[in-house]
Records
---
Amino acid sequence: MPGVVETTHTFATNEVITSTLMNNIIDETLFTADALANTTLALTAGKMKVGTITSNEMGAGAVTTNAIASGAVTTSGLASSSSAITGVTYAKMQYAANMKALGNTSGSLGVVSEVSILDEDNMVSDSATSLATQQSIKAYTDTKFAAVITRGTAVVTTSGTTVDFTSIPSTVKRITVMLSGVSTNGTSPVILQLGDSGGFVSTNYLGSAGEVRSTPDVDLFTTGFGLLQSPAAADLFYGIATIVNISGNVWVYSFTGGSSTVANNYIGGGSKTLSATLDRIRLTTIGGNTFDAGSVNIMYE
């Protein structure tokens, strides 16, 4: 009965054992199928080799990283993914910490590592390598777009000698003052004054304003930005004054306007340097006349 090996020579009775015969037996001995304990081994022409091993036949820890030579497993040896559960699956990849993604932010070819995912509605960290969540991007852009232009609340100019707009944000770089049908009970020039935490400033303005008419009339203004040089008490005037920050606390302005009661146009321009951050603006007159018609509002950005 055959055993686990087969030899190519059978000794006869009283046959002399020689070294040649013994060497031949050893060299030519073949394994039989009885030598296989499981399907992890295979026979090829009587020679034993490692067979195809499936994942089900390999126990946990059966093959360690130390048992696999460097470069022994190549990409061609990995199954291609055809679904979320084939090939190299998520479960077989390295675990990552919370709010981390795997990537390379080195600026060149490099080892994959954990990259932070930040959920900051104000983008305060200003990171050049971290990722942002969809929610934080939406919150940030919504806030920025909403704050591009802010319109104040219109104030009627039917009484009093001043109209003040306060609590203007320190980040504002451009202010638009809108006048609609504004009138006073006198002929004093109408001006705009800027202010900061120390109050409204009424000195050292640079600029001029005037009326475009048959006989032009232009004056210098030092106590504020000139809007109307010499209005009549019954005049209703309209216009836009734009005040823009150049740098630091330096502001420049321009004004254009017209009237519905007299064929005049109004122009002006100038500059003012404050000692602190602008946070307020005032519409008033030089002579203390009282407003008696119209409304005024501001927009800032």
---
Amino acid sequence: MPPEVIASNATLIAERATLYHFGILTSSVHMAWVRAVCGRLEMRYRYSPSVYNNFPWPDATDEQKADIEKLAQAILDARLLFPDSSLADLYDPLSMPPKLLKAHRTLDAAVMKLYGFDSNVTEPEIVAELMERYKGLASK
């Protein structure tokens, strides 16, 4: 960021994050986790380190990680097609660009497969499975 930008105390970073991390964090699986465990400020989600640190990441091979990275890059590439649009504009459910929507759906399908979810799994089922995985990790 340029020097005139002043970050607030709510700024979070993930050191050494890769496109793989971006892909998982922008997937519908992670967003289901966010909706279940994230705090709120008014109606907005308040992401915190505990949301990230307690998220049960999938076990992925290097090849699977590379696939997720390609799909994550496709999302970034789709965003670049609209340089004058804000993220709020791009993610407006009524006017989301079809190419960006397709990129997200393709990524979501790959992340669901990585977790072993069926394509017609519901959000409550995703959250229940993630909680089971979290429980297993927390008990170690």
---
Amino acid sequence: MNQTMTIREALVWGRTRLERGGLASPRLDAETLLALAISRDRTHLFAHPGSPVGDESLGRYRAWIDLRLDHYPIQYLRGSQEFYGRSFTVSPGVLIPRPETELLVETCLGLSSNLHSPFRPTRVLDIGTGSGCIAVTLAAENPGLEVTATDIDPLAVRIAFDNAQNLLPGRSNPVFFVSDLASCLAPFPRFDFILSNPPYVGWRDFGEVDPSVRLHEPRKAVFSGETGFELFRRIFLETRRLLNPDGRLLLEIGAGQAPQLITLASGLGWTNTASHRDLAGTPRCLVFAPVPEGSGKGSSA
């Protein structure tokens, strides 16, 4: 490869390498990485295909193509990912926000819009906040929500806090805690909504996970025991003490998990009140209500 290349030549070189490496979107990846390397948007590449790529930019681009060949996420190279119209900082060690998770946010915003108490705020808990995308978005979209968020990883909590400071300057809401699920929280005051996008992939499915996730995203944010239901069970058991009797638990789930999760919840004293599908038609967000003590186990709805 020559040291001096035009934008067109660099794109052809990068796309060819990624094609040979079996990447799913070699053209888009090459364009995204080159635009990032020269600090321009992709439209600049098409408007100036004959422009030379500087040595420093070319060096970055070549290194990033090599990383991408190992399925390294572009979001980590860019240092950000858009979620609900906002740019969230991400780095290795924190799960990259997914578009599917926006459904969890939309569901909570819809349910919480029906609660208007002059005596107290509507309280929301985000368990396993990661980058903070759920907690920060809820606080930004509805300032009337009092949002608390937890994560077991101190690095994730630091990134989430920084995202809140950057996207909600001057605000003290959300509040973040380092905690295994919600073990650090007192049972009062209780929450009106508890949300979680927990690890829900089982180790038995390790080989089926996309290589970029399997190789580079934090495994403790992706995998949950052998079956993928282990953390769901803990959430059902540990959140009853924190949720108002008429509150709701909202969970993001994996494809095909809905029937088994509803059965699991029923056996642990919860009833499924709603199921929301993503754009592919897959049940992605389940809503649960606690069954009152003494009334028997829950039943699916």
